[in-house]
Amino acid sequence: MTLTEAEALDAADPLREFRDRFALPEGVIYLDGNSLGALPHSTPARLQAVATGEWGEGLIRSWNAHDWIGAARRVGAKIAPFIGARPHEVVVADSTSANLYKLLVAALKARPERKTILSEPGNFPTDLYMADGAAWSVGDARVRTVPAADIVEAIDDDVAVVLLTHVHYKSGAMLDMGRITAAAQAKGALILWDLSHSVGAVPVDLNGCNADLAVGCGYKYLNGGPGAPAFLYVAERHQGTLRSPLSGWMGHAAPFDFGDDYAPAEDISRFQCGTPSILAMAALEEGNAQFDGVDRAALFAKSRALGDACIALVEAHCPDLTLISPRDATRRGSHVSFRHPDAYAICQALIDRGVIGDFRAPDALRLGFAPLYIGFADLWRAVDILRQVLADGSWDDPKYHARNAVT
Amino acid sequence: MTLTEAEALDAADPLREFRDRFALPEGVIYLDGNSLGALPHSTPARLQAVATGEWGEGLIRSWNAHDWIGAARRVGAKIAPFIGARPHEVVVADSTSANLYKLLVAALKARPERKTILSEPGNFPTDLYMADGAAWSVGDARVRTVPAADIVEAIDDDVAVVLLTHVHYKSGAMLDMGRITAAAQAKGALILWDLSHSVGAVPVDLNGCNADLAVGCGYKYLNGGPGAPAFLYVAERHQGTLRSPLSGWMGHAAPFDFGDDYAPAEDISRFQCGTPSILAMAALEEGNAQFDGVDRAALFAKSRALGDACIALVEAHCPDLTLISPRDATRRGSHVSFRHPDAYAICQALIDRGVIGDFRAPDALRLGFAPLYIGFADLWRAVDILRQVLADGSWDDPKYHARNAVT
After folding, report:
1. Is the same domain home to A77 and A12?
2. Which of A153, A378, B341, B363 is deepest in the core (most CB within 10 A)?
3. Would B17 be classed as within a structural domain?
4. Cβ contact, residue pair B277, A280, below 8 Å
5. pLDDT at A190 over 90
6. Please, what is the average pLDDT of chain B?
7. Hey, which residues of B are catalytic here?
8. What angle in degrees, to the nearest 10, is found between the helix axes of A376-391 and A296-317?
9. A125, B57: Cβ pair inside 8 Å?
10. How far apart are CA B326 and CA B324, in angstroms?
11. Which of A36, A215, A232, A374 should one mutate to test binding to chain B, selecting the residue with the greatest count of B CBs within 10 A?
């Protein structure tokens, strides 16, 4: 692919006008929207309206007048179409980590005769850490990990819940949600999908797969801002029986009766915990609204095409990099990773030249394509800079080897 | 007290200029800063800077460049002086509810031979609900409540942790932190204080009382905005041994090594969980900064004087209201509550006339005085309107009896 060909693809892109909704800095090619989504142009104004109007003028009255109390359900319902859920099956609350914990403990308690959380080694760390914390909290449970390829046959009668990330944060490999969900349920286990690297970038059909539980992140493809609130999904059939260990007042059946006894809401609201940040919730709602009018099939097709083009360009021009991600776009998320022993320094050198991807320990350079605002010419230019950095060895500078707090 | 006398007190108030830091709406007397602190004038600009500069321009680089990664510890350290803690003993994370859970489960696990969380009936609901959830999660623990007056003698060898709110959300009654802490520790129990209605309004000396654990709210007197992140305190001596059940990656010793095994940070950072909202964190930091330059002794003295004046005025002019709160200002927080069978409707009628207090089920009218921005003339005018509403019966209108979602 030449730059001219890349520009022709952008010109023919049915999503090309969506890019204008985002504040992308001059001189930057942003290939990290899978880690932190870009700022929508409309978000600062929304934050001003919430801060000065709803909070400053409305004060406490805005819990009713501006439906702050309904925000968790309202924003959840807007995320639902991206994941094949019904509006009343999704709620926004807390962090992905906390939501994982809620659902893991709920699952262990719902299957008391089973003691295992089954996951894969190399899953996103917080998934494994929260599983560890959930098992430790409950006291007589454990976490077992087996490679994703062996998961289905590893599900035995001791598995209460299978915890997997749909699109792997490092490799970009996408698991077969339908097959694994069915296998887990056939063995009497529940399935919990982490959709953090999926939602807004690849097709997800929780209802179609009959999935039990899911969580996901608001600050990646949903553009909700750094540390945006997360969401969780509980299939309608489980809402009345699964209990959240984080039984806070926002999940109570009647929070403003101020009674002493905990009685969970009958519906998805029971998975709320404390009072949510209304500023953060508004930014997430605004981020999610950037998808209004998008053709979702075109979005997902573009994501796959960008990944294919990235692999082709890097393999053609950067022979020192080894592909980690699946070559088959239908088995891949919207990011592609390559192995190099000095991936960290190469990533820093790229950032210094305006190409923002990221490093994932120990040796992965990860390039992500948020299909709403990244085009083929962006990608072409980014790989061209990567080619130069590798060819002239300019990445091998002490300043690029010095580690930051956040890598 | 006459209006002229009230105005004289305001003129002599050493804190009078702090009021100008807040965006208080025209025509409103805001006596609910104990529920949701007012908007600081500087907060919208701070949010803009974080959104457009740090997020929009800096993108993922701001985790290092703008120290997003350090925000939880940095803001925690700024809250520490208000509660008699050392900077490394406080961290901002999650909600008050989630923080209660972390510390309750940590305490139960640290005292495995003890099975009781001891609290008081009528504690703020989420405290009791989270205690219920913590006991349920651990599996062989229970919550026991006895009236605060009987707490000390109720602490027996089965109590793992005593959970109390320092200033009661409804009555405003302040418990004796030193005495109860010592009593709990004498029986081998840990003490967990909820400071939500204390921090920024009344003196708190956790270190001076040798307190073990505490949590508190960011959106009341700290002015962090609706649903602001909360904080938690763990005495230095416990930081290496207590484990958080919400063992998310932000509390890991090396989160960016992306290892599979959970290893908690050695310090207070282990009580972080998932990625915090940076927008919400910035608003909290800005809210807290409004106290810069304040004479804390003068602040607390003003809080007590406002409460005393409120009781005197209401008892002089509103005989239908019965005081719920302690008359002794040294045993009271910065709000005062009165009982009336129609407190809900009276509260709504007041709001309609620009006096914002709040109702707490079943029959309390609560008036709060954020001493940074509420003055004696505000109070005088508010009670004068209350007097009129009661005297002319105008509160008894169907429109004031209709319940809102949030009361």
Report:
1. no
2. A378
3. yes
4. yes
5. yes
6. 97
7. 124, 194, 219-220, 366
8. 20
9. no
10. 7
11. A36
A62 lies in the same domain as A182: yes
Looking at the complex, report in whole angstroms how far the Cα of residue B146 sits from the nearest Cα belonging to chain A: 12
Q: What is the CATH number of the domain that holds A15?
A: 3.90.1150.10
| A397 in reach of chain B (CB within 8 A) | no
Chain B residues in contact with A38 by the CB 8 A cut-off are: 56, 59
Taking the CA of residue A380 and the nearest CA in chain B, the distance in Å comes to 21
The pLDDT tens digits of the residues spanning B371-390 come to 999 999 999 999 999 999 99
Question: Do both A230 and A333 map to the same domain?
Answer: no
Question: Closest Cα partner for B95 from B228, B3, B199?
Answer: B228
Residues B237 and B137 in one domain: yes
Q: How many CB pairs under 8 A join A and B?
A: 313
Query: In B270-361, where does DSSP find H-type helix?
Result: 278-289, 296-317, 343-352
Residues B172 and B232 in one domain: yes
- Minimal C-alpha gap between A365 and chain B (Å): 14
Quick: pLDDT tens for B246-273: 999 999 999 999 999 999 999 999 999 9
Do residues B25 and B157 both lie within one domain? no
Residues A111 and A221 in one domain: yes
Average of per-residue pLDDT across A286-292: 98
* Domain membership flag for residue B406: no
Contact, A82 vs A224, CB < 8 A?
Answer: no
From chain B, pick out residues whose CB is under 8 angstroms from the CB of A277.
Answer: 225-229, 277, 279-280
Give how far Cα A152 sits from Cα of A165, A193, B299, B361, Å. 14, 14, 63, 52
Please tell me the predicted confidence (pLDDT) of residue B407: 80
**What residues of B are in contact with residue A106 (Cβ under 8 Å)?**
none
pTM of the model: 0.98
Q: What is the CATH number of the domain that holds A209?
A: 3.40.640.10
Q: Are the Cβ atoms of B277 and A360 closer than 8 angstroms?
A: no
Number of folded domains in chain B?
A: 2
| Nearest Cα residue in chain B from A27 | B57
**Domain end point (choices B289, B323, B349):** B289
Contact predicate A68/A54, CB 8 Å: yes
**Choosing from A22, A101, A169, A219, which is the catalytic residue?**
A219
Residues of A in contact with B125 (CB under 8 A): 249, 252, 255, 258-260
- Give residue B213's domain range: 45-289
Q: Which two tokens stand for residue B376?
A: 């004696």
User: Which domain-ending residue is among A243, A272, A289?
Assistant: A289
Q: For residues B44 and A348, what is the distance between their CA atoms, to the nearest angstrom?
A: 33
pLDDT digits (tens, 9 = 90+) for A37-90: 999 999 999 999 999 999 999 999 999 999 999 999 999 999 999 999 999 999
Partner-chain contact A25 B130, CB within 8 Å: no
Query: What residues 255-274 of chain A have any CB closer than 8 A to a CB of chain B?
Result: 255-262, 273-274
Q: Catalytic residue, from A22, A82, A101, A124: name it.
A: A124
Regarding whether B309 and B282 lie in a shared domain, the answer is no
Listed as own residue / partner, the contacts of A35-38 with beta carbons closer than 8 Å and 24 or more positions apart are A35/A220, A35/A358, A35/A368, A35/B60, A36/A219, A36/A220, A36/A226, A36/B55, A36/B59, A36/B60, A37/A219, A37/A220, A37/A221, A37/A222, A37/A223, A37/A224, A37/A225, A37/A287, A37/A370, A38/A223, A38/A370, A38/A373, A38/B56, A38/B59
Contact between B275 and A44 using a beta-carbon 8 Å cutoff: no
| HEC assignment per residue over A57-114 | HCHHHHHHHCCHHHHHHHHHHHHHHHHCCCHHHEEECCCHHHHHHHHHHHHHHHCCCC
Q: Which B residues 74-113 touch A at CB under 8 Å? A: 94-98, 101, 105, 109
Structure tokens at B232: 């938690």
Q: Is residue B407 part of a domain?
A: no
A245/B134 Cβ within 8 A: yes
Beta-carbon count within 10 A of B6 CB: 20
